[in-house]
Amino acid sequence: MNPQITPLTPVVLPSKGPLLTRTGWSAFVIALIVVCAVAPVMNLWVPEGSAFHMSTYVVALLGKMMCYGILALAMDLIWGYTGILSLGHGVFFALGGYVMGMYLMRQIGRDGNYKTDLPDFMVFLDWKTLPWQWTFSDSFPATLLLIVAVPGLAAFIFGYFAFRSRIKGVYFSIITQAMTFAAMLLFFRNETGFGGNNGFTDFKRIFNIPIATPSMRMMLFVLTGLTLLGFFLFAKWLVGSKFGRVLQAIRDAETRVMFSGYNPIGYKLTIWVISAIMCGVAGALYVPQVGIINPGEMSPANSIEIAIWAAVGGRASLIGPIVGAFIVNGAKSWLTVAYPEFWLYFLGALFIAVTLFLPNGVVGLVNKYRKQGET
Questions:
Q1: Alpha carbon distance 276, 71 (integer Å)
Q2: Domain ranges of the chain
Q3: Torsion angles phi and psi, residue 195, rounded to 5
Q4: Residue 346 phi/psi, 5° resolution?
Q5: Which residues pair with 292 in a beta bridge?
Q6: Secondary structure, 3-state, the chain
Q7: Going by C-beta distance under 8 Å and a sequence separation of 6 or more, which residues neighbour residue 279?
Q8: How far is it, in rounded angstroms, from Cα 39 to Cα 34?
Q9: Please, which residues bridge with residue 206 across strands?
Q10: Chain centre distance of CA 186
Q11: 176: closest CA among 160, 162, 195?
Q12: What pLDDT is stored for residue 12 in this prediction?
C-alpha cells in the first residue's frame, strides 16, 4: 500500500519593507533638485560673509563627495545586490578620470610653461609627438564617449574571463585587488604617456572657461548632483526590474538560479560593466573639481575604502552607500586636518564596528528604530 503523498505547501516569506515610502523617495529627489537649483542662486545673491554662502572650498568638497556617492552606488549594485565584492573599482574610477584629464591637458594648449601643444610633462621628457592613446583627446564628444567606453571595455574584458572561469567569493576579490595594483604600477611608468607618478594637474579651462572661476565650479557641482540623482533613479529602476530580481537571486543562491534555467554569467557581466561605467563617469566629474589625477587613485586602499562606504551606509539599500560615502569622507576631511595620524585607525575601527554591530549599516539601524516606533 503506497502512502499518500501530500504536496508541500510553499512557504511564503514576508516581504521586506521598503527602505523609504513613496513620500520619502519623493522628498529625497526634491531635496537634491532643490540643492542643485538653489545653491547657485544663493551664491549669486548671498554675500560671501553670510552663513548661507557656500565657499569655493565647500562647493568643491560637496562636489567631490557626490562623486564618491556615485562610486558607492556602483559598489552597491555589484556587492549589495549581486553579492560580488570588488576590491578593484578604483581602477575604473581612475580610467574615467584619466580620460577627462587628457582632454583638460590638451585645453592648456600654448598657455603652458613650454609654449607647445604637447602637455608639459611630454616636453620635459623630450617627446616630439603625441602617443597614439592621445589621438582623440582634443575632442570633447570623443572624450564623453571614451569616458564610458574605456572603463566599460576594461570591465568587460576582465569580467568575461573571470566570470567564465567561475571565480567567485574571496578569490574574485583578490584578483580585482591585483588588477588595480597592476594598473597602478603601469600608470606609474613615464613611458606609458600618462604623466608617471605626477599624473595630470594644473588644468586651466574647459570650453574656454577657466576652471577656477566660482561659476564653473558651481556648474560642475550642479552637474555632479544631477548625475548622482540620475544614477540613483536608474539604479532604483534596475533593482526593481526582473533583471534586478535575478541579480538578487544570484546573490542569495546562484546554484538554484542556474537550475532554474538562467545563466548567471551574462547577468553578472552586465551589472559589472554597468557598475564600472558609473565609476568612470564619477572619475570624469571628479578630476576637474579636484584639479589632479594620478596613479594613486588606483591604489588598492582606495578601492577598499569604497567597500567601507557601502558597508557603513548599508548594502542593498541604494541610499545607504551614498549616506556612507558622505559620513566617512566627512569624517576623513575633519580627521585628516585635526588628527591626521589617527585617520587610518579610525577607518579600520569603523569597519570592524559596522561588521560586528551594524551589519545593515546606518540606514539599517534607522529602519530598525523606525519599525519599532511604528509598533
A1: 9
A2: 59-298
A3: 85, 5
A4: -65, -40
A5: 201
A6: CCCCCCCCCCCCCCCCCCCCCHHHHHHHHHHHHHHHHHHHHHHHHCCCCCCCCCCHHHHHHHHHHHHHHHHHHHHHHHHHCCCCCCCCHHHHHHHHHHHHHHHHHHHHHHHCCCCCCCCHHHHHCCCCCCCHHHCCCCCHHHHHHHHHHHHHHHHHHHHHHHHHCCCCCHHHHHHHHHHHHHHHHHHHCHHHCCCCCCCEECCCEECCEECCCHHHHHHHHHHHHHHHHHHHHHHHHHHHCHHHHHHHHHHHHHHHHHHCCCCHHHHHHHHHHHHHHHHHHHHHHHHHHHCEECHHHHCHHHHHHHHHHHHHHCCCCCHHHHHHHHHHHHHHHHHHHHCHHHHHHHHHHHHHHHHHHCCCHHHHHHHHHHHHHHC
A7: 70, 71, 74, 89, 92, 93, 96, 151
A8: 8
A9: 209
A10: 22
A11: 162
A12: 37
What is the residue type of 320?
G
Task: Extract the C-alpha cell encoding 177.
Answer: 585587488
Q: 10 Å Cβ neighbour count for 139?
A: 13
Q: What is the residue type of 263?
A: N
Q: Contact at 8 Å (CB) between 196 and 254? A: no
**What's the pLDDT tens digit per position in 176-218?**
999 999 999 999 998 888 988 889 988 888 887 888 888 888 8
Do the Cβ atoms of 75 and 310 come closer than 8 Å? Answer: yes
Q: Which amino acid is at 334?
A: W
Q: List, for residues 41-91, the tens digit of each pLDDT value.
A: 556 555 566 555 677 788 888 999 999 999 999 999 999 999 999 999 999
Length of the chain: 375
Set of cell numbers at residue 360 = 545593515
Grid-cell match 526634491, residue found: 30
Res. 14 pLDDT band, cuts 50 70 90: very low
User: Which grid coordinates are listed for 191?
Assistant: 613611458
Tell me the CA distances in angstroms from 244 to 56, 81, 251, 374, one per residue in order: 39, 8, 11, 29
Residue written as grid cell 556648474: 219
